[in-house]
Amino acid sequence: MNKKNFWKSGHKPTLFGSFLYFDISFMIWGMIGPLAVVIANDYPMDPVQKANLVALPILGGSLLRLVLGFMSDYIGPKLTGQIGMLVTIIPLLLGWLWVDSLEHLYVVALLLGVAGASFAAALPLASQWYPKEHQGLAMGIAGAGNSGTVLATLFANRIAQHFGSWEAVFGLAILPILTVFILFSIFARNSPHRPAPKSLSQYASVLKQRDAWVFCAFYCVTFGGFVGLSNYLTIFFNTQYGLSAVHAADFATVCVIAGSFFRPVGGFLSDRIGGSRMLMYLYAGAGIMLAGIAFLPPLTVVVVLLFVGMMCLGAGNGSVFQLVPQRFGNEIGLMTGIVGAAGGIGGYFLPLILGHLYKSTGSYMPGFISLSLITFCAFTLVIIMQLKWRNSWMQRSATVTDEAVNRIGELNA
C-alpha cells in the first residue's frame, strides 16, 4: 500500500468536499467555547453556568448525529450534508439577531449542535468511496475537518473585539457556511457502492452487539476529550492563568491544532500497525499528560502537556474510525452517527466535570485527575478487546485485505 494507490482508489473531489463541510461546521460548532469569556461580560456566569454554555452545543451535536446518521443511510450523505448546512444558518441568525438573555443563549448553543452533527454525513460520504485498506487515511483526512475548531479559537474573539460585539461573529459565520454549501454541492458525490438502507429492526440489532458499545466508549474518550477540551480551554486559561479573552483563545488554539491535524496521522498509522494497538499507545500518552496537567504547572509547561495530550486524543479519533468501517462496513452511516453521538456525550460531560469540580473545590486538579483516570480505564479496555478481536473479525479483515493485495499483484504481473 502506498500514497499513490490511496489517491487512485477513491474520489478526491468528494474527499475534499467532505473535509470542507466538516471543517466549516466544526468552526461554527466550536464558536461558543472561546466566545464564552467575552459573552460573560454581558451575561455574568459562575463556573457551572459557563460549563453549561460551552457543553450545550456538544450535547446538541451528539443527539443530532443519530438523526443525520439515519438520514445518511436513507437519503444519502450528500443530501444530508446539504440539509445540515442550511439548517445551521438558523442558530447563526438567532445568535446574531435574537439573543437578549442567558436563556436565549442556551437555546442557540443547543441548536448549534446541528453543525457538530455534520460528522454523521461527512465521514460516510468520504468513507464509502475507499476500500478497507485505505479507510484509516480516508476517514482521517475527512475527519481532519475538526481543524475548524482552530478557526473558531483563533478568530472568534478577535472578530468580536474588532466589531465590539460577539453577536457579529454569528452573523459573519453565515458567509463561509453558504460558500462551502456551494462548493460541496458542486464537488461531492455519493458513492455508487453506497450500501442499501437497512430496516429499523436491523438498526436496532446493531446496538445489541457488544462491539458497537465498545467503539462508543473508545470514541467517548478520544473525541469527547478533544472537543470538550477545545470548547473549555479558553475558560481554563482565562480562569487559571488570568489571560485575556484573546490570549486565552490563542493558547487554546495551539493545543487544538495538535488534536486536529494529528487525526489523519492516527488513521494512517492505524492502517500500518492496527487501530487497536495504536489506541493503546495513544490512551497511555493522553492519560499521562492529563495527570501532569492536574498539578497545574506554569503556563509554558501546561501548554506543552496539553499539546501532546490533545495530539494523542486527536490521533485516537482517527484510530477509532480506522476500526469502525472494518467491523461495521455495511452499517457505516448508522455507526458513524451512533459512535459520533457517544463522542459528543463525552465532550458534553467533560466541561461539566471541570466546571463543577472547580466550583466545589476552587481548583482544576480534581477535574484533570478524573479525566486522567477515565483515559486509563479506556487504555485497559482496549487491551482486553484487542485480545478478543484477534480471534474474530479483526483476523477475518486482515485475511480479506491480504487476499485483495495478492489479487492486485497477480493482475499487475
From TrEMBL:
Subcellular location(s) of the protein: Cell membrane
Membrane topology category: Multi-pass membrane protein
UniProt xrefs under SUPFAM superfamilies: MFS general substrate transporter
UniProt-recorded Gene Ontology molecular function terms: nitrate transmembrane transporter activity
One GO CC term on file: plasma membrane
Keyword set, alphabetical order: Membrane, Nitrate assimilation, Transmembrane, Transmembrane helix, Transport
Pfam families associated with the record: MFS_1
Domain of life: Bacteria
Domain Major facilitator superfamily (MFS) profile: 14-390
Main location: membrane
Record field: transmembrane: 20-39, 51-71, 83-99, 105-125, 137-156, 168-191, 212-233, 245-266, 278-296, 332-358, 364-387
GO biological process, one term: nitrate assimilation
Family, similarity comment: Belongs to the major facilitator superfamily. Nitrate/nitrite porter (TC 2.A.1.8) family.
Protein's recorded name: MFS transporter
